[in-house]
Design a protein that fits this description.
This protein is of the alpha+beta class and about 190 residues long. It is about 25% helix and about 35% strand.
């Protein structure tokens, strides 16, 4: 067991607010509450500026540091004082055995998903609907920042995925946009 995985499991048990670093992939820290950990993946309730901003899954192997400081402890206290801590899905059973298992589970509750391949030469950011999760890859019907859907789904190998997100403000705003468009057509 890696030291990071061991730390993450302890933070899951203690319901700590932590910062996660992925040196070589992302220059920024990622702050959140750990919700599930496996040798493959860690799932967090992402927190940005004291705002709960969806669920984020990361490859465990990419994590280079997990940090818990006095600042994190105070910010956790403030989040709970604001009434937001009760919205964190602590205790929910997430299937983090593999990308395939987790993505299949998350697509049951979330219409849109962000899939990122940040390592190597790919550096892909796709947002859209997962249409297939079987085998060694997924298929995602995705759209551009201008809201234009691609003609064909993209195929993404599970081995290339470094991060996926659901239920965040970014995806939710697009979801509402597409719902308004669909309503306007009727």
């Amino acid at each position: 067991m890696t030291p990071q995985k061991q730390q993450l499991e302890q933070h899951l048990e203690d319901r700590d607010l932590v910062s996660i670093y992925r040196t070589g992939i992302d220059d920024s820290q990622i702050q959140g509450f750990v919700l599930a950990v496996s040798s493959e993946l860690v799932l967090i309730q992402y927190v940005y500026d004291f705002r709960l901003d969806g669920l984020m899954a990361l490859r465990t192997e990419d994590i280079t540091q997990v940090e818990l400081t006095a600042t994190h402890s105070l910010q956790k206290k403030l989040i709970f004082e604001e009434g937001l801590g009760q919205q964190v899905p602590f205790g929910f059973e997430f299937d983090v055995r593999s990308w395939r298992a987790l993505i299949a589970q998350l697509t049951l509750r979330h219409a849109l998903m962000i899939v990122e391949c940040e390592a190597g030469e790919l550096n892909e950011f796709l947002i859209g609907r997962i249409v297939q999760t079987e085998g060694d890859s997924l298929q995602i019907e995705h759209f551009t920042g201008a809201g234009n859907w691609a003609d064909t789904p993209s195929v993404v190998s599970y081995g290339d995925i470094t991060c996926c997100q659901v239920g965040n403000n970014y995806a939710n705003v697009y979801q509402r946009h597409f719902e308004r468009l669909a309503g306007a057509l009727h």
